[in-house]
């Protein structure tokens, strides 16, 4: 069966949580940028809706902000980056090494009529918004009845015509538009944030084999409003991080699974675990 393009969002939000210290172990900003890019690319490929970055060690505070900044930059359409990110931002010095996300709302292969892409509201005049949609110049868009937008807001528009340029504002929900990023001061803070309504999957070498837990994961997905996958750090597993913060992993996760059984390397890096886990769960989750 041919892949559906543009892909729809998932029927229920899928989120991941990664530790900031996965950047801290890298000796240079360039290598930190590369590693953040691997995580962002995985999130886009598997239609993740949100990436949680949590601070797991005291020395990771600054890297948490760098991580968040790089991930948000990646999720921004290339034609809007100059407006939204100043060239002097030191955290983005090596942004050129980042892999492109090529999200369906980033103008991939466009512009073309019928395409839905992200646009930045530059100003509003009554029922008309002036937006930058990466079409060479600002374009006016008639706002639907009852819809209000503000300067700096990012909206979705559909290209109705290119000659002349005509855009329609469309509601989100018909196409996957990437992820947002949220930062947390600790694993404890993250655990509080993803408690109610979440089915929480912790990844661990000591967890249940993924295939053995598959039916339970599917039930959990069906019963909860959203799902989050939690990852440990290069230096400590989730259980060790939780215990250091006075938590029990079994209290902050609904299930603990091993998505890389019989691993052939001594350790699995966090970015590798993200790809492996999302690839495995992509086969289990509906939509």
Structure in a nutshell:
This protein has 287 residues and is an alpha/beta fold. It has nine helices and eleven strands. The radius of gyration is 20 Å and the shape is globular.
Number of helices: 9
Distance between the termini: 14 Å
CATH fold description of the largest domain: Alpha/beta knot
Q: What gross morphology would you assign?
A: globular
CATH level-four homologous superfamily name of the largest domain: SPOUT methyltransferase, trefoil knot domain
Quote the beta fraction: 15-25%
Any idea how many domains? 2
The gyration radius over C-alpha positions equals 20 Å
What is the H/E order? EHHEHHEEEEEEHEHEHHEH
Low-pLDDT runs of 5+ residues are: none
What does this structure look like?
- The protein is of the alpha/beta class.
- It has two domains: 14-102 and 181-282, Alpha/beta knot; 106-170, Nucleic acid-binding proteins (OB fold (Dihydrolipoamide Acetyltransferase, E2P)).
- It has nine helices and eleven strands.
- The two termini are 14 Å apart.
- The mean pLDDT is 94.
Topology, pairings included?
Elements: E1 14-19, H1 21-24, H2 29-45, E2 50-54, H3 61-74, H4 81-84, E3 116-125, E4 128-132, E5 139-142, E6 154-162, E7 165-170, E8 180-184, H5 187-193, E9 198-209, H6 210-223, E10 226-230, H7 238-244, H8 249-252, E11 255-258, H9 270-282
Parallel strand pairs: 1-2, 1-10, 2-8, 5-7, 9-10, 9-11
Antiparallel strand pairs: 3-4, 3-6, 4-5, 6-7
Helix pairs in contact: 2-3, 2-9
Overview features:
Alpha/beta knot, alpha/beta, 287 residues, five-stranded mixed barrel, six-stranded parallel sheet, OB fold (Dihydrolipoamide Acetyltransferase, E2P)
């Amino acid at each position: 069966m041919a892949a559906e393009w543009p892909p729809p969002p998932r029927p229920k939000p899928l989120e991941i949580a990664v530790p900031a210290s996965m950047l801290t172990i890298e000796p240079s900003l360039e290598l930190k940028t590369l590693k953040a890019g691997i995580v962002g690319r995985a999130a886009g490929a598997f239609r993740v809706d949100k990436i949680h970055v949590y601070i797991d060690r005291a020395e990771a505070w600054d890297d948490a902000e760098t991580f968040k900044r790089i991930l948000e930059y990646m999720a921004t359409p290339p034609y809007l980056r100059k407006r939204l990110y100043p060239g002097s931002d030191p955290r983005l010095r090596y942004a050129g090494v980042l892999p492109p996300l090529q999200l369906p709302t980033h103008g991939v292969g466009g512009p073309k009529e019928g395409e839905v892409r992200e646009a930045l509201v530059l100003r509003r005049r009554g029922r008309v918004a002036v937006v930058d949609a990466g079409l060479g110049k600002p374009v006016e868009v008639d706002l639907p009845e009852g819809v209000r937008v503000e300067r700096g807001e990012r909206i979705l528009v559909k290209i109705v015509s290119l000659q002349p340029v005509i855009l329609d504002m469309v509601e989100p929900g018909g196409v996957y538009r990437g992820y947002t990023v949220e930062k947390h001061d600790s694993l404890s803070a993250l655990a509080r944030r993803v408690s109610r309504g979440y089915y929480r999957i912790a990844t661990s070498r000591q967890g249940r084999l993924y295939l053995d837990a598959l039916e339970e994961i599917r039930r959990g997905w069906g019963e909860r409003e959203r799902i989050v996958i939690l990852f440990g750090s290069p230096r400590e597993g989730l259980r060790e991080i939780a215990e250091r913060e006075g938590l029990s992993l079994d209290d902050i996760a609904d299930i603990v699974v091993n998505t890389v059984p019989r691993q052939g390397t001594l350790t699995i890096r966090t970015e590798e675990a993200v790809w492996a886990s999302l690839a495995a769960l992509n086969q289990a989750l509906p939509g």
